[in-house]
Amino acid sequence: MPGTASPLDELLARSHRLGAEKRITNYAGGNTSAKLTIADAVTRAPTRVLAVKGSGGDLGTLTAAGLALLDLGRVLALEAVHARGTHEDELVALYDACRFGSGGAVPSIDTPLHAFVDLDHVDHLHPDAVIAFATATEGDRLVRECYGDAVGWIPWRRPGFELGLQLRDFRRAHPDSRGAVLGGHGLICWGATSDACEATSLELIEAAERFLAARGSAEPFGSRVRGVEPLDTGIRRREAARLAPVVRGLGSTDRPMVAHFTDAPVVLEFLEREHAPRLVALGTSCPDHFLRTKVRPLLFDLLPTVPFAKRVERLRALHAEYRADYADYYARHAGPSSPPMRGCDPAIVLVPGVGMWSFGLDAIEAKVTGEFYVNAINVMRDAESVSTYSPIPEDEKFRIEYWDLEERKLRLKPSPPPLAGRVALVTGAASGIGRAIAERLADEGASVVIADLDGDAAEKVASGLGPERALAVTTDVTSEADVEAAFAAAALRFGGVDLVVNNAGFARSAALVDTTVDDWDRLHAVLARGAFLVSRAAARAMQASAMAGDIVYIVSKNAVVAGPSNIAYAAAKADQAHQVRLLAAELGPHGIRVNGVNPDGVVEGSGIFTSEWREERAAAYGIPPNELGTYYAGRTLLGKEVLPTHVADAVVALTAGGLSRTTGLLVPVDGGVATAFLR
Ligand SMILES: [Zn+2]
């Protein structure tokens, strides 16, 4: 009911509504605040408190814990500290000393923008339509024409204490103002109540959109350029899947990254227009945008009609140029106290006719980076439709990108998990050992392709892991076409793969005289031929990306140990074991390590131990089927049962960096079986 919600609940609800729409603010962009009176926990003295979205976090999902609570009087008192000569960046350290009560989020650098506005409710947002004014050559004139005196124009200044003071002075000079456009950056507005503030935010954004619709020119990006129009959907996707590993490999030169691809109309329409090259070179403007997208993207410049090998060669040359340019940009602007360069790969790669790739340490980050460039495209279109797009100067971008305060924020972030940026494909991943491996790799930060004959079960595993970091593909590993399709799907979704686990398999137990040709052929088709097809596709994909990678075979103790009633299965497993050694020898020069795991006695949760195989083995040992796990454990040196998670542990040990100089190794995960010792 209106009027009964607490001010903090009101603030959170308003933030969620504003953060839910990308046209209002980009993901994790902008912040909201409320000033309220709270009794001090110790003195009971009523205290004016500023509740403002803290550093990091997203408006759409803001929680009470994401709010920074500050004693407003103390924040305002920092002005005197500033007047005595403390630089505004140094004041940030004192925000902590202004916190009210315990807990809450770390106050962000935008805190003074909220503190110094005299009204209780403030929204700072990054709406594309308003950033278009903010980045237009005649932004101040456009703001006046759109809003009259209701909204002011504050020329570009880095967010911080001095911008807060400037807003305070602006409010004093214009007590009737409803907000201000921050040049090069975004929108800030205010209200006496939360509802009034929110209504103003929405009205100002809608007014900008209406203004642009009424006044904007029809073709702000210029006319279409012949030859770079979007390819037909089917051809475009095939082209994207073919290019993706190359693009991801280039974007991963400094460290492995996941690549997100989009061929959304907004991207393709921009790329086919004559002004695209000029605008791409200008780069993004809103600090929130270029902190994610880097100062500018890499734009490809050859037509899709040029032969593929030539295009790849050109892409590599452009990437080398990009890295050199970025290093120059750093060298041009860095001072003695600048943080070290963070790597010079592009965060965005644009290929006219095909689409856009964006990079991140995981699939969500990669996708969000791309969304930021779509925001930038919208900004450029709108700015060009009424004026000329003119982002903040490069030295200012550098100051933000390598700002001490941003650097501190980055250092506070937890270090990424060991498989961050990696993309894994696991065969037979819908159940048993394969599923345990896929889930474990995802836990360690990898994006994972769940390949399985049972597509529905694969979907279930993928959706359990979250659609953002897992992809299900129906794959019969004995089918060359299926395997190619699985790798193409992985390329389109994550940019390729660099960690492949050959796990798909099944088992049959029969004496030689009872083994059918069909059993022999099927076991060899799945285990030997299937692993060969998957490894071949993996090696091709990894070589196209020029990225180092891992291939892991889930083999078996039976590849080593000879026993009765196992001819077809164990011979096919021995084939896999030798594939490990052969491919380790062949693929080492490409930086591809090939290793294997020899599990044994995995009964619980194992897909192989279908009731049939379990009964066959139990009968062979003369025990009841439900005692098979304990029976196997009893035969081991450690006396412990082996579970699918133990096999997954071995895969992580082999691939997550701990054994980076090891290839051609088979790791027993069998509880200790002396006859299976390798020599
Ligand atoms: Zn901002």
> What's the β-strand tally?
18
Q: If strands are numbered along the chain, what order do they take across the biggest sheet?
A: 3-2-1-4-7-6-5
CATH architecture of the largest domain: 3-Layer(aba) Sandwich
Bound molecules: zinc ion
Low-confidence stretches: none
Structural class: alpha/beta
What is the total number of structural domains? 3
Silhouette: elongated
What is the C-alpha radius of gyration, as a whole number of Å? 30 Å
Q: How many helical stretches? A: 24
Instruction: Predict the CATH topology of the largest domain.
Output: Rossmann fold
- By oligomeric state, this entry counts as single chain
Whole-Å distance between the termini?
75 Å
Helix content: 40-55%
Largest sheet: 7 strands, mixed
Kindly estimate the percentage of residues that lie in beta strands according to DSSP. Answer: 5-15%
Mean pLDDT: 94
Reading off the top of the CATH hierarchy, the class of the largest domain is best stated as: Alpha Beta
CATH superfamily of the largest domain: NAD(P)-binding Rossmann-like Domain
